[in-house]
């Protein structure tokens, strides 16, 4: 890839730019960034990452191999309409827009495009995203590999069918929030059982990291790992019994299904507005 243009200069765009530069996939001079009107943010990116920034659309888009759409979904329709003359079938479109279908992007651009729709998560900021990519039929193998390389600079990357992206959104797009929710509960409990806040924070973070690393490195299933912690008649068994009585596992399943449903609903709402 010789040139990447990024439209929308928020936290997701910054995380991806940082990942690309840290892994030397592209040089700063190959990345061009624009946004709606926040010049200060562009100056910050230019000074921190030495990428090219600005509002001269010819300069941003000319000869770009790929254009990344990274504004909020609510701004996507206006943004895509505003740049549609710069979108051609030769340029790969990489979208990080949650709940915006590939066909909505093409309808807004009023042309057929090669589009890769992605769902990263906020851990992209530290290179630990779990991302999924879905392509349309106009994306070449070479374009897909280039995009996969970009997302691998910010973490683990899976390839899925577009229909699966709502499920991915419910699972790993929103996923960090479920883990933070658990951490919040652990912090509250630590306070109630009399542990010092700072020390408890350290214990909680290391417990989560350790368990995640065990899931990754051991060949055991989550259930096997859980059973290995649980001594008969011991503390874990007593604790887990409370979770089971409150059907916490089923609640987590319902939570992820509901988030996936909501993703589908938001996508349908967006598509129906685009069609009007
Ligand atoms: N936060 C999350 O967990 C995830 C977010 N995403 C998606 O990433 C995208 C970006 O999210 P953030 O980085 O959190 O947003 P953000 O609010 O930090 O940044 C959005 C950027 O878009 C720019 N913008 C707004 N309207 C524009 C326009 N008409 N033309 C050009 N630029 C415009 C803004 O100036 C700003 O720089 C969203 O579409 C979101 O759905 C995807 C996966 C996970
Ligand atoms: O909550 C949301 O709608 C977005 C999509 C994935 C994570 N955050």
Automatic annotation (TrEMBL):
The keyword Transport does not apply. Pfam families: F420_oxidored, P5CR_dimer. It catalyses: L-proline + NADP(+) = (S)-1-pyrroline-5-carboxylate + NADPH + 2 H(+); L-proline + NAD(+) = (S)-1-pyrroline-5-carboxylate + NADH + 2 H(+). Pathway: Amino-acid biosynthesis; L-proline biosynthesis; L-proline from L-glutamate 5-semialdehyde: step 1/1. It is found in: Cytoplasm. Its EC number is 1.5.1.2. Its main location: cytoplasm. NCBIfam families: proC (TIGR00112). This is Pyrroline-5-carboxylate reductase.
